[in-house]
Design a protein that fits this description.
With 458 residues, the chain is of the alpha/beta class. It has helices at residues 21-32, 46-53, 84-91, 99-107, 122-135, 198-210, 225-232, 283-297, 302-310, 338-349, 365-370, 372-376, 403-412, 423-433, 449-457, and strands at residues 12-16, 36-41, 57-60, 72-75, 96-98, 112-117, 141-148, 153-156, 162-166, 181-184, 217-221, 237-242, 248-255, 260-267, 270-280, 320-325, 328-333, 356-360, 384-387, 417-419, 439-443. Strand 14 and strand 15 form a beta hairpin.
Length: 458
């Protein structure tokens, strides 16, 4: 594989924020193709260590000298204009490119680009599609926003014309992609630090659909009200899915003792096959249908679809069973939006349990504030909610919202909810209340997973 925009493999590409899940994947694709790579991040991680072992020059901390000698600098959407490396790159007239544009240029080198978008479910659906394509020996290049065991990480460099990636709508970054198949799983309010309102989000997804060529495909969830207008704007082939409506539907849905679905897949009134999932929850039926539609649009045979889905046992941090201690099952999930939390707790309700304890770490002040009322009503299927402090991520502290405020409103509903301000305090409390048969969920996009690991390690 070679890239038209960096033909000379002796050139050096520097990544600001190389430890991010997507940035690390892009860096690894370049390393696999023998390009020179360097990168910086605020702290060391398993991803930066892995890249270092593969030949990348890794800097911990951002400093202007890190970019010197680079021929191209790639940066994430989270990098601000006052970043010293970005400033120095511009002083030295080193070309700069944001992550989305860089990924789009890599996609340009493939014919069958599958870009999976939507407010929720991108990582799981991307992983499902990846499993199907790998089972069909299509040798795709894969870039997923989570760790996937079958590719031993978050990226795989294939040698075919198939490219599978998540397409995040944050800052409209997916508008720099080149989808042959564009998947839209759902549209809801999120990233309101960038978008004005839900209409702005809906319009941006409409622009995404315009990127799909006439001979390409839009795969869309037909029961999402915000998506219906977007679907009508498509000038390409359209394949919709759902449970009550859509071209491809799930019928006769049953759940096993682990909360995983078995269902019949129909195209209009014709039964195609029976699918057996090994990830729990009704929301994963919809993710499965979306991945089935992608496979059908590319004429993947039914056998590979069925086997690919059956062999998918989840992505790390997506209802990931971390372990069992004293009869307590510990599950971690990346859910950080109210709808995702509801879906995770709905899946947990169908999983064997005595009581469900949900430890939630809100992710960013903006999201917590703008979706505050939705968060308050997200935990009805938990027997007890335990709130950690807000994970700031890219944002600065504000007094406008806090986990304590969220906890007060949840308690006003009569729900059992407690606030703690340190992980050690949460683990100490869990040791006093958890009993044999209970289910402990750690939920959030920050580092809340550490709480489950601390509990298991004690």
């Amino acid at each position: 594989m070679s890239f038209d925009f960096i033909k000379d493999k002796h050139k050096k590409i520097h990544f600001i924020g190389i430890g991010g899940i997507s940035m690390s994947g892009l860096a690894e694709i370049l390393l696999e193709n023998n390009y020179r790579v360097s990168g910086s991040d605020m702290k060391s991680s398993l991803l930066t260590e892995k890249l270092g072992k593969h030949g990348a020059e890794i800097f911990i901390g951002h400093a202007s000298k890190n970019v010197e000698g680079s021929d191209l600098v790639v940066y994430t959407a989270a990098v601000s204009e006052d970043n010293p490396e970005l400033i120095r790159a511009k002083e030295l007239n080193i070309p700069t490119m944001d992550r989305a544009e860089f990924l789009g240029k890599i996609m340009k080198g493939h014919k069958y680009n599958v870009a999976i978008s939507g407010t929720h479910g991108k990582t799981t659906t991307t992983s499902m599609v990846s499993h199907i394509f790998l089972n069909a020996d299509l040798d795709p290049t894969i870039l997923v926003g989570g760790e996937l065991d079958i590719i031993d990480g978050n990226v795989k460099t294939g040698k075919s014309e198939y490219f599978i990636t998540e397409a995040c709508e944050y800052k409209a970054s997916f508008l720099k992609f080149f989808p042959y198949i564009g998947v839209i799983l759902n549209i809801e309010a999120d990233h309101l630090d960038f978008y004005r309102n839900i209409d702005h989000i809906q319009d941006t997804f409409t622009e995404f659909v315009k990127l799909i060529p006439e001979d390409g495909y839009l795969i869309a969830y037909s029961e999402d009200e915000k998506l219906k207008k977007v679907i009508k704007s498509a000038k390409c082939n359209v394949l919709t899915y759902g449970i009550n409506e859509g071209d491809i539907r799930a019928k006769n849905i049953n759940f096993n003792d682990r909360g995983c679905a078995i269902f019949d897949v129909y195209k209009n009134e014709e039964k195609l096959f029976t699918a057996n999932l090994n990830v729990p929850g009704k929301h994963n039926v919809l993710n499965g249908l979306a991945s089935i539609c992608v496979a059908l649009s590319l004429n993947v045979d039914y056998k590979n679809i069925v086997e690919g889905l059956a062999n998918f046992f989840g992505t790390h941090r997506r209802f990931e069973i971390k372990g069992v201690k004293n009869g307590v099952t510990v599950v971690d999930d990346y859910a950080h939006h109210p709808t995702e939390i509801k879906a995770t707790l709905e899946a947990a309700k169908n999983y064997p349990h005595k009581k469900i304890y949900c430890v939630f770490q809100p992710h960013t002040y903006t999201r917590t504030l703008t979706l505050f009322d939705n968060f308050v009503h997200s935990f009805s299927n938990a027997d007890e909610v335990i709130l950690a402090d807000i994970y700031a991520a890219r944002e600065k502290f504000t007094k406008a919202v806090s986990s304590d405020m969220l906890g007060d409103k949840i308690r006003e509903l009569g729900q059992n909810c407690k606030n703690f301000h340190g992980f050690e305090d949460i683990v100490s409390y869990l040791n006093t209340v958890l009993e044999n048969g209970d289910l402990l969920l750690t939920v959030g996009a920050g580092d809340v997973y550490k709480i489950g690991e601390m509990y298991l390690a004690e």
